[in-house]
Design a protein that fits this description.
With about 170 residues, this protein is α+β, with helices and mostly antiparallel strands. It has helices at about 15-25, 60-65, 80-90, 100-115, 130-140, 155-165, and strands at about 1-10, 30-35, 45-50, 55-60, 65-75.
Length: about 170
């Protein structure tokens, strides 16, 4: 079995309006979700996420300069599923961030509240919660089997992971 950490954070920038807006909208202390891969041979862990215009990986040292960690949840996955996740992560690294996708999530939520069901009209690029959801589809598929990665929020994934959280964060 392999351990994967899913983290939740907020921006450390002085005027982080988008981070603030997501936290207000979700009613959470976090606005961002990411994956931490244990890489002791590098001297620190590696954070992978969709942010700053791309899907990218960085050392936890660099990540912690930009983000305030709110909480991290550890999950255990099979070696086979872990490797599937790494392959997918490698395939999408460098893809563009999907700014409009976040507006689409807001639109889907608004129309759902009026009992109007639509799909996210803006599906190009990646946002942080979509990225983590797709990685979870590879390494822990039963957890997210009924989740649409195009409309999932960090809060929804947090709630799912807290139900599964059997390990110390």
């Amino acid at each position: 079995m392999k351990r994967v950490k899913i983290g939740f954070s907020k921006s450390k920038k002085n005027l982080a309006l988008f981070s603030w807006a997501v936290r207000v909208y979700q009613r959470t202390k976090f606005s961002h979700i990411y994956i931490i891969l244990e890489t002791p041979f590098l001297g620190s862990d590696t954070v992978t996420h969709a942010s700053e215009g791309k899907v990218l990986s960085m050392s936890d040292y660099q990540f912690n300069k930009r983000h305030e960690v709110v909480e991290e949840i550890v999950i255990e996955v099979s070696e086979e599923n872990y490797n599937e996740m790494l392959l997918e992560l490698h395939k999408v690294s460098g893809d563009d961030y999907g700014v409009m996708q976040n507006i689409g999530i807001l639109l889907v939520d608004l129309l759902n509240s009026l009992n109007i069901k639509i799909k996210n009209p803006w599906q190009q690029g990646w946002n942080c919660s979509e990225f983590v959801c797709v990685m979870l589809q590879k390494c822990k598929p039963e957890l997210v089997e009924n989740i649409d990665p195009q409309t999932v929020t960090p809060k929804q994934l947090y709630n799912l992971l807290k139900k599964e959280d059997k390990y110390e964060s």
